[in-house]
């Protein structure tokens, strides 16, 4: 018997609804951590929220569990075998990159302890929201592609890129302008500009990869079965979002303003 | 079986020989501090351990290489055996216990080196590229040589004016890196009269190699005599003392005396002038204001300058008299 | 000329020059637009060098396939063309064997340069007072000796791992051949930039680059920071490739505990390389930003913390030393069974000991900072963790001796270097515990004792084992065998000279001589020791020269060998030498244990079609 509509085993059944539900939970958690920061400024609580949000993105948007699925085709030359190999490579890359951001976090706490830099909370919450929404649309793009809906994938991916550009522009041309200190102004400046700078550089590369992939998507280079480039760029984008999930509370929420 | 007997005898002989050899050449310089006693004891234990482990492995290895070498014309392979879990556990567990014991001895030795004598004499050490200065706060003078009384614990409070240096007198055994912007502590109780050399032990630029000072350990009586001599020849004029302190503590790094703007406000014409603060008010730069600015630099920030830049360690590093001398110097720049 | 122009390396250098000029111009224009004084040497040099490296990568051709993919085109699997001959080695090749030899060439060049720096300043040090080097020249040569050798070691490790790992696991190449080529080629401009520091004023900080001294150093330090940052990508991506390849491309039947033991060493090494290396990149980039933009990370004048740099730096640089030695210790475990003709004793324990060393290696970095003024409560834990590393290391030593026990032992050059590695590394390892213990370390830190300790561990764990691997696999790489007499001469010169050099270093260190000094007091009476060290250094250099001569002679008229000259059970020796271009025409299946020498009728691998 020939099955006509078979979901390939290498993909989790991640429908558009699941993506939206995850986004709603992330939004609620973000609002909660913002509230907690003002009424109960305890860093373990902030850290816990960050881990929860990060875990959700890792599991549902980045499909971490896919790494542990058994190969359905043992043939080393097959597309599906190489796909799993590529995924492993991408995850190792992100693991390695995570160490840079880990080092920056360590530096932030070493230099600022439990004080935090003087920043505009409204801007912080805004750009965090923008990035979170962009991840939602990135996931939507990937799920649409898996379901063969190329048109929806193009629209969602375009929105992701626009939101990514909005994030970048706001950080570089608003946040960096209105901050009451410059990069050379003591430890506050050093920590703030280095963390946002390294992150913004990765956002820039993420936009670059997403744009290349969008171009190829429009020129019909991808199919529901074969779209590794799209998946990779989007998973990388989610990784950048996870970094921000930890950087946002570290910069804006944890600690008290210095006297 | 006879293999093991021969090896055991050779290991014992080798251990004794190596240890004797190491001892005979005098590995360490003469010991001149109380803190170094537990250190030298620990070195002694390590020499035995090193001689033993080296012998154990080398003898067994060389023995095997000789006895089990392929002789001319021999064919065939080695005796096939893959391993023995019990042996593996043994040679994991025994070294594990041994290193834990060594770590315990090390911890004990460390706490002995850090014993605090409340009556210790404070000597302030100022390191800069590429020279040393020693301040004797109890006697109010500074010196280029480090004179120390034997048998008394010295609390060395050290700071650097520029980069990381390190205090090292091999005969005292202990070493401590000296950081800029902070005061670090090292306690030494000299136990032997003599002349030693203090060398900087952290690469600090081109002339790191030349950054040395004389260390002289004398009897308590001779030390007092020396302090009298130094006090007699020290400057009496508060302005001169203040100028010396300003150079010693690196004030000029941030505060110019010729009116130019550096990281901090200039001292030229500062005394009794009207100073605009960052909160919009103005204050008179009198002795009270200047004292507070040195002890608590972040309470009042001058307009156009940044907070959290000037170290707040001077309250601890300088005595009140020294601060008065500094202010006398600043006043002289009216 | 036209033929030279087609060489990737030549095109790469051409584009590097263009890129450097472009980078300098770019910075100048941006500064003009920002209404700053247009010309400032430091940002111009840094951005120029960075663009130079990027343009080099484009010019050499290593980005071409990725550019094709970005354009939505196919990039076919490269067909290796053996008829290109030596040209293959000067251009982008995706063949891991070619890449391995490219890495090896670069490593040997770096060792020669780093070694010559050492001989220059050792000549000056033979006499107490400075002879011909100014202090800044001495500090620069000494610093460069350190970092050039370190980069050389990392490149050499990539050489061994890239060449052998696919062969050992039965794969026809690495999982990501293009990434592999990229990992090699980025190391080339990185090395050029590093060495250019010589002509940009040098630097006086040692390879450790501590601030605030690094913030005041001459311009050369930026080339040091940038060169190391770029080469860190080589390490990281190379390690990533190894880990994915070993996970995904092992031959049928090759369960984890039936892999050749060197593969375990490669895994342990790569776990460290792929992760910790990012921290030295970060520490150096933060220093660069502090110099360029005044960002106050480490300078107390700006409220920064110099000890933070030390934590970030050593968090990588300690595990890095395990990267340096784990492959070599794996080589010892891999080669001993071949020359003693019996199994590696306690294979599983040896495999796990590599992982244990790698993992505990992440927990000990503070022992470099016992005197640094870090928080007091940190000193004891780091002492305990550091002493613990000796336990898995000890397991290896005991295993090696047990492997030799009741063997049938022969002593060709590879075996000599394996044994030399064990002896020298033993000395290095035994000199470690006094450094691991805080109070004794306060005497030893920053003295020549430390210098002796790490030269012994590096020479034993890496240099000797590298030569063992080269003498062993040379026929597999080239189809010719290195001259045995010269090999023995190389060993008998290098071994004793190395022992003398390092024992004397430890001696003068224990007597209180500090390191990184361009002269020393005559009254210390240490001059005879320094003369001995200088002579020993030259003997080591001579032995390496003999090795290079051996390479050249062998290329011209070395003994041609095509078969399994070592009678090894390992798969790569079951096919002819030099290694066929696609590795294994027929796949093999693992049907037994790797080291069952002396067990009649046992086989390790069975090729398709064999019975």
Structural notes for this entry:
The complex is a heterotrimer of chains A (259), B (334) and C (611). Chain A contains 7 helices and no strands. Chain A has helices spanning 16-39, 43-61, 79-112, 121-146, 150-178, 186-218, 228-253. The longest helix of chain A is centred in the middle third of the chain and has 34 residues, at 79-112. Chain B has 8 helices and 12 strands. Chain B has helices at residues 2-24, 36-67, 85-113, 220-233, 238-248, 287-295, 314-317, 320-331; strands at residues 121-128, 131-136, 141-143, 146-149, 154-160, 165-168, 175-178, 184-188, 194-200, 212-218, 274-276, 282-284. In chain B, strands 3-2-1-5-8 form a 5-stranded mixed beta sheet, with no helix packed on it. The longest helix of chain B has 32 residues, at 36-67. The N and C termini of chain B lie far apart (92 Å). The relative contact order of chain C is 0.09. In chain C, α11 packs across α18 and α18 (448-478) runs antiparallel to α19 (484-510). Chain C is globular. With 611 residues, chain C is mainly alpha-helical. Chain C has a two-stranded antiparallel sheet with strand order 1-2. A two-stranded antiparallel ribbon of chain C has the order 3-4. The interface between B and C is large, with 88 and 89 residues.
Widest sheet of chain B: strand order? 3-2-1-5-8
Q: Over the alpha carbons, how many angstroms does the gyration radius of chain B reach?
A: 30 Å
Helix/strand-derived class of chain C? mainly alpha
Q: What would the CATH topology of the largest domain in chain B be?
A: Immunoglobulin-like
Percentage of residues in helical conformation of chain C:
55-70%
| Poorly predicted runs of chain C | none
**Main sheet specs of chain C:** 2 strands, antiparallel
Radius of gyration of chain C: 24 Å
The second-level CATH architecture of the largest domain in chain C is Up-down Bundle
Stretches of chain B where pLDDT is under 50 for at least 5 consecutive residues are none
Q: How many distinct beta strands of chain C?
A: 4
CATH superfamily membership of the largest domain in chain C, which one?
Cytochrome c oxidase-like, subunit I domain
Number of domains of chain C: 2
Largest sheet of chain B: 5 strands, mixed
Beta-strand portion of chain B reads 15-25%
Number of strands of chain B: 12
Write out the strand line-up for the largest beta sheet of chain C, numbering strands in chain order.
Answer: 1-2
In CATH, the architecture of the largest domain in chain B is Sandwich
Calculate the terminal CA-CA distance of chain C, rounded to whole Å.
53 Å
Average pLDDT value of chain B?
91
Mean pLDDT of chain C: 95
């Amino acid at each position: 018997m020939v099955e006509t509509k078979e979901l390939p085993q290498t993909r989790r059944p991640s429908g558009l609804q699941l993506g939206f539900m995850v986004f709603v939970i992330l939004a609620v958690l973000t609002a909660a951590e913002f509230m907690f920061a003002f009424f109960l400024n305890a860093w373990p609580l902030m850290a816990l929220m960050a881990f929860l949000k990060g875990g959700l993105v890792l599991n549902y948007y980045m499909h971490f569990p896919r790494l542990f699925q058994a190969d359905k085709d043992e043939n080393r030359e097959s597309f599906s075998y190489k796909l799993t190999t590529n995924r492993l490579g991408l995850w190792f890359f992100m693991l390695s990159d995570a160490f840079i951001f880990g080092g920056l976090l360590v530096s932030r706490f070493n230099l600022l302890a439990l004080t935090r830099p003087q920043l505009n909370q409204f801007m912080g919450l805004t750009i965090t929201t923008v990035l979170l929404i962009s991840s939602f649309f990135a996931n939507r793009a990937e799920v649409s592609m898996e379901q063969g809906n190329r048109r929806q994938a193009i629209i969602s991916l375009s929105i992701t890129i626009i939101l990514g550009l909005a994030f970048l522009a706001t950080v570089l041309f608003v946040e960096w302008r209105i901050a009451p200190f410059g990069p050379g102004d003591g430890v506050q400046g050093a920590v703030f500009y280095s963390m946002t700078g390294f992150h913004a550089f990765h956002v820039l590369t993420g936009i670059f990869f997403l744009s290349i992939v969008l171009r190829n998507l429009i020129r019909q280079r991808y199919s529901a079965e074969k779209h590794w480039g799209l998946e990779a760029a989007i998973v990388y984008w989610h990784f950048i979002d996870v970094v921000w999930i930890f950087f946002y509370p570290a910069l804006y929420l944890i600690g008290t303003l210095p006297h | 079986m006879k293999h093991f007997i021969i090896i055991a005898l050779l290991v014992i002989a080798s251990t004794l020989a190596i240890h004797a050899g190491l001892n005979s050449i005098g590995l360490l310089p003469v010991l001149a501090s109380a803190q170094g006693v537990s250190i030298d004891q620990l070195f002694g234990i390590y020499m035995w351990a090193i001689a033993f482990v080296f012998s154990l492995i080398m003898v067994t290895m060389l023995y095997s290489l000789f006895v089990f070498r392929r002789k001319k014309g021999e064919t065939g392979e080695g005796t096939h055996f893959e391993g023995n879990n019990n042996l593996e556990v043994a040679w994991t567990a025994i070294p594990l216990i041994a290193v834990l014991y060594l770590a315990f001895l090390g911890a004990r030795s460390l706490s002995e080196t850090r014993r605090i004598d409340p009556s210790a004499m404070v000597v302030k050490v100022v390191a800069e590229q590429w020279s040393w200065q020693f301040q004797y706060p109890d006697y109010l003078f500074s010196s280029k040589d480090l004179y120390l009384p034997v048998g008394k614990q010295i609390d060395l409070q050290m700071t650097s004016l520029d980069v990381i240096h390190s205090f090292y007198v091999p005969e005292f055994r202990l070493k401590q890196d000296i950081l800029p912007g902070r005061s670090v502590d090292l306690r030494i109780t000299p136990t032997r009269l003599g002349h030693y050399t203090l060398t900087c032990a952290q690469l600090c630029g081109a002339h790191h190699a030349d950054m040395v000072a004389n260390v002289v350990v004398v009897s308590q009586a001779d030390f007092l005599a020396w302090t009298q001599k130094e006090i007699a020849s020290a400057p009496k004029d508060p302005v001169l003392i203040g100028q010396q302190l300003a150079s010693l503590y690196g004030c000029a790094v941030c505060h110019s005396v010729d009116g130019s703007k550096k990281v901090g406000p200039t001292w030229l014409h500062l005394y009794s002038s009207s100073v605009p603060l960052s909160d919009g008010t103005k204050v008179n730069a009198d002795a009270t204001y200047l004292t507070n600015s040195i002890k608590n630099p972040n309470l009042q920030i001058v307009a156009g300058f940044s907070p959290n830049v000037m170290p707040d360690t001077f309250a601890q590093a300088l005595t009140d008299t020294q601060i008065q001398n500094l202010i006398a110097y600043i006043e002289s720049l009216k | 000329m036209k033929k030279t122009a087609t060489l990737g390396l030549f095109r790469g250098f051409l584009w590097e020059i263009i890129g450097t000029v472009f980078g300098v111009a770019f910075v100048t224009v941006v500064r003009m637009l920002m209404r700053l004084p247009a010309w400032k040497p430091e940002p111009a040099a840094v951005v120029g060098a960075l663009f130079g490296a990027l343009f080099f990568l484009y010019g050499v051709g290593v980005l071409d396939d990725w550019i094709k993919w970005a354009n939505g085109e196919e990039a076919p699997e490269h067909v290796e063309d053996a008829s290109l001959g030596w040209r293959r080695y000067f251009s982008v090749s995706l063949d891991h064997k070619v890449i391995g030899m490219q890495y090896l060439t670069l490593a040997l060049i770096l060792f020669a340069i780093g070694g010559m720096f050492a001989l220059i300043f050792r000549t000056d040090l033979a006499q107490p007072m400075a002879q011909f080097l100014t202090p800044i020249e001495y500090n620069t040569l000494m610093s460069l000796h350190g970092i050039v050798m370190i980069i050389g070691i990392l490149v050499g490790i990539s050489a061994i791992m890239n060449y052998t790992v696919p062969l050992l696991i039965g794969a026809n190449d690495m999982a990501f051949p293009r990434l592999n080529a990229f990992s090699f080629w980025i190391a080339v401009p990185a090395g050029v930039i590093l060495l250019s520091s010589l002509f940009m004023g040098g630097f006086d900080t040692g390879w450790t680059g501590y601030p605030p001294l690094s913030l005041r150093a001459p311009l050369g330090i930026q080339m040091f920071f940038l060169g190391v940052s770029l080469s860190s990508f080589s390490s990281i991506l190379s390690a990533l490739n190894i880990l994915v390849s070993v996970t995904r491309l092992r031959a049928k039947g090759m369960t984890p505990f039936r892999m050749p033991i060197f593969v375990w060493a490669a895994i342990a090494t790569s776990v460290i390389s792929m992760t910790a290396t990012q921290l030295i990149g970060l520490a150096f980039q933060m220093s660069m930003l502090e110099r360029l933009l005044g960002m106050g990370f480490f300078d107390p004048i700006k409220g920064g913390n110099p000890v933070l740099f030390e934590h970030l730096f050593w968090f990588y640089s300690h595990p890095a030393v395990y990267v340096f030695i784990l492959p070599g210790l794996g080589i010892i475990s891999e080669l001993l069974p071949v020359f003693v003709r019996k199994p590696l004793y306690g294979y599983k324990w040896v495999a796990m000991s590599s992982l244990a060393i790698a993992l505990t290696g992440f927990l000990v970095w503070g022992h470099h900072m016992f005197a640094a003024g870090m928080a007091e409560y940190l000193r004891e834990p780091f002492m305990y963790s550091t002493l613990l590393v000796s336990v898995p290391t000890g397991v290896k030593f005991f295993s090696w001796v047990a492997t030799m026990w009741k063997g049938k032992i022969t002593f060709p050059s590879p075996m000599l270097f394996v044994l030399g590695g064990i002896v020298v590394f033993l000395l290095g390892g035994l000199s470690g515990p006094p450094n691991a213990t805080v109070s004794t370390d306060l005497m030893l830190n920053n003295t020549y004792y430390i210098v002796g300790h790490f030269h012994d561990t590096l020479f034993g764990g890496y240099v000797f084992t590298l030569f063992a691997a080269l003498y062993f696999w040379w026929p597999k790489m080239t189809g010719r065998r290195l001259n045995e007499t010269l090999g023995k001469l190389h060993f008998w010169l290098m071994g004793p000279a190395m022992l003398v050099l390092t024992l004397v270093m430890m001696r003068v260190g224990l007597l209180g001589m500090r390191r990184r000094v361009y002269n020393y007091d005559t009254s210390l009476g240490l001059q005879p020791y320094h003369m001995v060290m200088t002579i020993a250094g030259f003997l080591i250099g001579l032995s390496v020269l003999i090795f290079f001569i051996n390479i050249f002679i062998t290329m011209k008229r070395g003994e041609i060998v095509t078969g399994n000259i070592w009678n090894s059970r390992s798969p790569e020796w079951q096919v002819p030498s030099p290694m066929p271009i696609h590795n294994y025409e027929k796949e093999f299946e693992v049907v037994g244990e790797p080291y069952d020498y002396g067990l009649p009728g046992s086989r390790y691998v069975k090729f398709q079609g064999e019975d």
